[in-house]
Amino acid sequence: MEMHQANVAGPAADDGLLIARRRRNRIRYEAIQFSIIAAAIVLLILFAIAVKEGLARHGIRFSFSFLWEAAGFDISEGKTFVFDGGFWPAFTEFTSDRLILQAFITGIVNTIKVAVLAIVLSTVLGVLLGVGRLSTNWVVRNLSFWCVEFVRNTPLLIQLVFWYFAVVLHFPPIAAAAKFYGVVISQQGLYFPAVVWQGAGSPLALALVAATLAAVLGLIFGKRGSIRWICAGAVVLFVGVLFATGGIALDFPVASKFRARGGIGMSPEMAALLLAVVVNTASYIAEIVRGSIDALPKGQWEAAASLGLNRRDTVNEIILPQVFRVVLPSFGNQYISLTKNTALGIAIGYPELFNIYGTIANQTGHSLEGIVIVMMSYLILSWAISAAVGWADRRLAKRGATR
Amino acid sequence: MIARSLKWTRHNLFGKPFDVLLSLTVIPGVLWMVYQAVSWALTAARWDIIPQSLRVLMIGVFPADQAWRAWIAIVIIAILLGAALGCVFAFKGRHAGALVPVWAGCAALAGIENVTNVLLIAVTIAAFAGGWAVASRFPPVRKALVPASFIGLIAIFAVMAPPGAGLWGGLLLSILLTLVTAVLSLPIGILLAFGRRSRFSGLRWICTGYIEVMRSVPLIMVVYWIWILIPVLTPQFNLADVVRGMIGFTLFYSAYVAEYVRSGLQAVPRGQTEAARSLGMSEFDINRSIVLPQAIRVVVPPLVGNVLDIFNMAPLVFIIGLTDFLRAGQMILANPQFGDRTYEVYSFLFLTYFLVGSLITFVARKLEAHLARGSR
Amino acid sequence: MKLIKLLTAGVFAGLAFTAGQASASVLDTVKQRGTLNCGTDNTAPGFGYLNTTTGQLEGLDVDFCKAVAAAVLGDASKVKFVTVTDKSRFDAVLTNQVDVVFAHTTLMPARESSIAVDFLPINFYDGTGIMVKTDSGVETLDDLDGATFCTTQGSMTETVLTSTFKARGWQDSKVLTYENLEKLFAALNSGRCNAMSTDKSALAAWAGNSPSPSDYVILPDTLDKSPFGGFVVANDSKWRNALRWTIYGLFQAEESEITQANLDEHLTSEDPFVQRFLGVGGGHGKDFGLSDDFVAQAIKAVGNYGEIYARNLGPDTRMYLERKGTPNALWTQGGAIYSPLWN
Question: Which contiguous run of DSSP H or E holds residue A251?
Answer without folding.
Answer: strand A248-251
